[in-house]
Fold Glutathione S-transferase.
Amino acid sequence: MSSDITLYTYGTPNGHKASVVLEELNIPYKTETVDIMTNAQKEPWFLDINPNGRIPALKDGNLRVFETGAIMLYLTDKYDKDYKISYPHGSADYYEMLSWLMFQMGGVGPMQGQAHHFVAMAKARSDYAIERYATETKRLYSVLESRLSSHDWLAGDKYTLADVANFTWVKSSPVILEFDLSEWPGVQKWVERISEREGVKKGLNVPPSTRTPDQTKELFASMRAKVAAMENTDKR
């Protein structure tokens, strides 16, 4: 398979959605790290690729694709001719897959992302915001559980990009939010199944991590402690 793909990314759940799909489909690609810690994603050169100033973004030759859902659909539309991680367009399974993908794009990603921010990254502590977004994230996990308690995969009878999209976020919650996935046993087993896939292991290391798993846990523990030590700013 030939391609002229460059993935502009960083080691986040959204970034990993794109790299895992590329690895699962065995598509050749180059990687350019966009350091979001220095706001590189707001620089003019990157805004020419993604005017929204968020990672990841992708170029395939002269074609640009941004927003993770669009990237994942583009890659499967163009390169997954054997439907390894997708379904034929127009089929019932395709629309089930699309529904779970949009569930992640409109639910799990935004809600859990806000939970991450207020628990570990905020410059002021808001108990209300922490409770609101952590609770909503758990509710969304219960929706995943309603499917995964009786099925191995979110759409149809196989692993698809819908699983990839939700997995990269769910797997991060024990480290960042201290969620215990055993509260959702179907989800926990699903995370374990996906984590064993070679394409997933490779995609989760794009770009290569500079920290060990233990160092990552320590980092987020210190970030949570910093926020927790702040005075609650909610107005009574």
Observations:
- The first helix runs from residue 13 to 24.
- The chain has two domains: 5-79, 92-228.
- The chain has a mean pLDDT of 96.
- The chain is about 55% helix and 10% strand.
